[in-house]
Amino acid sequence: MVSIPKMLGNEQQALIKIEGMSCTDCEHHIKTALEGAGAMAVEANWERGEARFTWAKEVSEEDLKGAVHAAGYQPKEITLIGTLGASPDPTGSAQAHKAQAKVPGAPGFDYDLVIVGAGSAAFAGAIKAKEAGYSVALIERGTIGGTCVNIGCVPSKALLKAGEIYWQAGHHPLEGVSTTACKMDLGAVVAQKDDLVTHLRQAKYTNLIAGYGFDVIQGNARFTSPSKVEVNGNAISAQAFIVATGASPAIPPIPGLETTGYLTSTTALDLTEIPGRLAVIGANAIGLELGQFFQHIGSEVTFIDVAPRIAPFEEPEVSDILAGILTSQGAMIHAGAQVLEVKRTGNHIDITIAVSGKQVVVAADQVLIATGRQPNTAGLGLETAGVAIDSHGAVIVDSHLRTANPVIFAAGDVTGAPQFVYVSAYEGALAVDNAILGATRDVDFSGLPRVTFTLPQVASAGVTEAQARESGAEVIVSVLPLSAVPRALVNHETAGLVKLVADGPSRRLLGATVLSDAAGEIIQSAVLAIRHDITVDDLASTFHPYLTMVESIKLAAQTFDRDVSKLSCCAA
Questions:
Q1: 399-404: which pairs have CB atoms within 8 A and are 24 or more residues apart?
Q2: Of 1, 7, 40, 73, which residue is the catalytic one?
Q3: Is 569 a catalytic residue?
Q4: What is the average pLDDT score of the chain?
Q5: pLDDT per residue over 509-547, tens digit each?
Q6: Is residue 571 part of a domain?
Q7: Does residue 93 or residue 178 have the better pLDDT?
Q8: pLDDT at residue 459 above 90?
Q9: Is 182 a catalytic residue?
Q10: Which domain holds residue 105?
Q11: Is there a domain that residue 438 lies in?
């Protein structure tokens, strides 16, 4: 946002950020202070650390900030959020710089912005729009909060942590330390997970609705024209729309699957009894995470994937090492396998697969389908609104997230973008910038990280070696085994690697992959390097604390030119 000039030609709607408010009494003190300095219609909110008010032309910025400071608080920037009775001052409003910016509270519309969905993309967009002074409604047919907090990141990682602790209690590598893993009470683990989900949904989603002042309408939204949606029999118009309906588990057309029954990444999180034998169809991130979790708590797990290797989108070295880790822990893996049929036989399920030129029958008590997710676009009436979708059901958008209808944008999983919560939030905010604030920002995924929360973790950023070569780049590669990383040696956990891919002529880092404990934390160094065109020489010469796993990035960068096995500890 752009700071407002000290004096204005008309009364303006403005917002001031304030540090130090901690309760409703603080709101009263701020209201009194600002009104005493000449502000009108002051509304303070301690949770958001801000106050909104009408700013008259005769009141200076110094007077307003001075009043806040005199009341015992720390005033920050003042931002224009609208104009009363006049066009926005072109020097004071970011949205006024663009002719295509929408006008807050334009007549003839129910809302400035309507967002279909109420997950991370929707909330990021709604918050940004409300902070800029626009009226917003979210339409949600399910549970507030979307996938991540309810049935995705939060609950799954809560279970994975429980599985990790349980497994390590019986399988840690340290001599002289006696631990045992008693029988797991999966019901208690799931109950604690549910409590966490309820708390975070309330704290990070539901509580924000009143605080920011946008409306949430419960029901099914359907576009009835290019500029209206209908929900619960009521037509709602808006200057702009964002479709942010997310995605759901994709179920492949396997003969017998529907009649036999199956688990998805959603329903598997609610099991309270440990399956004796679990077949996981799909060995990418979700399948590997949940499959290993059940393996860690006592299930016999078989992974089945049509791709020639597990983790097929990662570097092949990662697939090989991770497959070795899983099989050493008791898993069976069938890669390059086609599932021919699923049927129930007595009290178990038989999965017939074709692999290596022969048919194999895998017996299981439960089948988990983890073959990806499909965008939630059915029943939205997108064709009526002039919004196109692709063959997978994803909304087609341009680099600005605009659909074929110029007033309808889309963000998050429904667009077929990388399905990470941080991508959805990023796109939700960017869509608001372009839809109503007059910006023309392009989506930029350079350095985008991804993490698979297996044990050990897999984390990647940028491009793989194969992708870099396919792009025509002159590639140089470094592969560092964890056995060369002092922290891994201390932990007695050396199954893993760090792989760096760089452009040969410039030596800029193009991609990184880490298979290790805390890989999700380590990868952020590579994200910043890729994002800001840092070279592997810069990485190698940057301080990295000794006896940390992130030091592996420095060692891998040194490996481009040196044999790190011949260096002393901390050698530069």
A1: 399/442, 399/443, 400/434, 400/440, 400/441, 400/442, 400/443, 401/427, 401/430, 401/431, 401/434, 401/435, 401/443, 402/434, 402/435, 403/243
A2: 73
A3: yes
A4: 91
A5: 999 999 999 999 999 999 999 999 999 999 999 999 999
A6: no
A7: 178
A8: yes
A9: no
A10: 98-249+372-445
A11: yes
